[in-house]
Structure formats: C-alpha cells, structure tokens
Amino acid sequence: MSSRFRLPARWLFVLLPALGCESTQRRLEPPELEDDFGATLETAPITEESVGETQMLHRRVQLEAKGMAVIPTGFFASNGFEVGPGAGVKAGIETGKNFFLGLSFDWAHWDQSEGVSQITSPGALTSVRPDQLYEQLDKLNFLLNGDYDWTLAKSFLAEDKPLKLRFGAGMGLAWVTGDIDPFLKQQAAAVGSDVGIQDYFGFLLRLAASLRWQLTDHVVVFGEAGWDLVSPFSIEVNVDGQRSQVGGDIDFGSIGLGGGIMFEF
C-alpha cells in the first residue's frame, strides 16, 4: 500500500521565503473614494514610510552633547560679567510624535571685568553693584525639558538627510558658586574678619531653538540658541558666619549660542 506525504499548511510560510517568494515592504492599497461631485479622490498607498510621517512607529531615545558661548544679558540688572565658555549634555525620550521629554545639565563660567578691585575712585565704593563682589563664578543648570521638532526639508543637501527646526522650553534649578573679589577679601582679613559669597540657588526658565541636520539614522548635528531667565535677583554674603542679603539686584540671566552632536536610537 502506498502512502502520500502531506505537508502541513503552516510550513508553507516557512518555505516560501526560502524559495525566493519573500515579499517586499508591506503595502496596503487605499479604497477608491469619491467626493460629493463624483470625482475620484487622490490617495497614496499606505506604507511604513507614509505612516511614519504622522505616527510614532517606535519610541526614540536621544543623547546629546554641546558646547557654547554664554553671554550675560543684564536685562533686569546691569553687570560686568564677561562672555564665557559653556558645555552641556541632555537625554530625552519621545513621548509623542516628534515631541521629546528629557533632562539636561550644563555649565558656564564667567569672569568679572568690573570688580571692586578695579574701582579707583573711593567715592564709587558707595555704589558697588552686587555683581562686583565676584571675582569669577560658575553657573550649573539642571532642567526638565520639552522639545518639539518640525521637518523643514526631508532631504537637505543629500537624499534622506532631513533638516529640522526644534523649539523647546525647560524649567529647573540654577546653582551659582563663585569667588569673592580679592580686594574685599584682603580688607576683611585686615580687620580680622572672614567674608564670602553664599552659593546661590534660583529658579531657571529656558527657551531655546535649534536647527538639526540628520547625517545618518543615528547621528544628528545642530546649532542652537537659548535664553535663560534666573530668579530671584538677590545674593547673600557670609561675614564671620553671619548671613546677610546684599542690597541691590543681580541678574544671572544669559543667552547661549553654540552647537553639538546628538545620537538617536
């Protein structure tokens, strides 16, 4: 008695790709639709690429590093701080199509060009600004950020290398630590006192915009400009262990101009 070998149907899905029958990208043809006047509406095939333009196919993670020049603004109180260097890092995750939530940290250094040591007129000492108490300072910023990307061009300078415009905002903490002017330090020591500036902790609001060019699937380069608002506008000094607030306002706000590189996964 002869017997026949019957191949289970489920094995066809395994064998067909091996025989060269593997399909290309999945493609769904949309139904033919008509408008109110009976004309056929133009529709495009539904593919992974077309869906990806409006829907989040997977949750992207971004890591970036940047360098910048940090410019003191003095919008709310004039100061003598000089433009200084800055650097920062940020990590973000996509929570909606092209919208990212993340955390960032950055640092900036400023020197004082109009400190008390530079004052030559005794009469000017009566009108010293709070910023003139510093010799130099470092500003450390910790932020929670929200960013949104708009695609300006799908292919910029090269095929499939999109150019995007990003707008973002962040809120967090500004921590300022600095050295007191050496002239004040010497004068206090001459009368047996010790004086220093208390570390400053304030609220930080940041608005930023950047242009981002995607070089590869995982590498993006960008240029960025941002503005920082820092509040409150006052500092404290410590004299022989006693803290007291300095009269007058001080503005730690700034504009940052720079660029960097971002890795996307």
pLDDT < 50 runs, ≥5 residues: 11-19
User: Portion of residues in helices?
Assistant: under 10%
Q: How confident is the prediction overall: mean pLDDT?
A: 85
User: Within the largest sheet, what's the order of strands?
Assistant: 1-2-3-4-5-7-8-11
As for the number of domains, it is 1
Number of helices: 3
Q: CATH topology, which one?
A: Porin
Radius of gyration from the alpha-carbon trace, in angstroms: 30 Å
Number of strands: 11
In this structure, how is the largest beta sheet organized? 8 strands, antiparallel, barrel
| CA-based shape | elongated
β-strand amount: over 45%
N-to-C CA distance: 61 Å
CATH architecture: Beta Barrel
CATH class: Mainly Beta
Secondary-structure element string: HHEEEEEHEEEEEE
Structural class: mainly beta
Q: What would you say this structure looks like, in words?
A:
Strand 7 and strand 8 (219-231) form a beta hairpin. The chain has three helices and eleven strands, in the order H-H-E-E-E-E-E-H-E-E-E-E-E-E. 9% of the residues lie in helices and 48% in strands. It has one domain (59-264): Porin. The protein has 265 residues and is mainly β. The strands form two sheets. Strands 1-2-3-4-5-7-8-11 form an eight-stranded antiparallel beta barrel. A three-stranded antiparallel β-sheet has the order 6-9-10.
